[in-house]
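Dear colleague,

Thank you for sharing your sequence with our group. We've completed the structure prediction you requested, and as agreed, I am returning the results in plain text so they can be pasted directly into your records. Please verify that the sequence below matches your submission; if there's any discrepancy, let me know and we will rerun it promptly.
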Amino acid sequence: MQTRYASSPNEVTSFNTEQLRENFLIENIFTPDTLQFVYSHYDRVIIGGILPIGDISLPTYPELKADYFLERREIGIINVGGAGSIEVEGKQYILHKLDCLYIGKGNKQVVFKSEKAAEPARFFLLSAPAHQKYPTTLMTSSEASPVEMGETKTSNQRTIYKYIHGEGIKSCQLVMGLTVLKSGSVWNTMPAHIHDRRMEAYFYFDVPEEQRVFHLMGQPAQTRHLLVANHQAVISPPWSIHSGAGTSNYSFIWGMAGENYTFTDMDFVAIKDLR
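Please find the predicted structure tokens below.
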């Protein structure tokens, strides 16, 4: 498990491309039978992925100072690969592509499996500290009340799936869902916004191999960008916008944690005010 420290907005204005990528881009999310985790000092969130060929158990780490991973944490998981299952304290949950599983604090045994090794599951994970136990809950993509938004004339026609939030799966502080852009649409989260009381993580998937997403970050008047490939993630600080455009359509998981649990807690920035 890698550790990423927090950076101030003043510091980031002087970062070159390499420094931006070292601090905010997670390039390796999926490696067969290997857990890839990054511990961020923004709201103590852990971001990672599991690509199980065999069975993989969720371990603990010395950095957590805990007897097991979920002793004082909760976790949200979305599958972006083939069919798989997650066993929590002996109970099995089947996840197809775009399905989500929330696991609350206090669960000791968590095992990840793929239905077919040739078409493995790809579990993206987001974990945050938790003060209360909520029940383990599975939500399929069809149960996430998909909402159609955007227009072709602004290149942002998309479907939004909300899983973990105040009116969906209950959690202590995790908020999690995903967005699928329609063919011909490339813009996400524009007009941009910030939410100073919680960080966010973006995980891009279904990006064609030769295509990229220009992920915009930074303060509204001091924007920077990261070139992001398929199955890569971005750590977004509370003071930063998180928006982007791709060279083709794509999908992304958005996950948040922090002081505020309300999905609509956003401070929008007019396009004309971005710099």
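Summary note from our side: The chain has one domain: 2-273.

Kind regards,
the structure core
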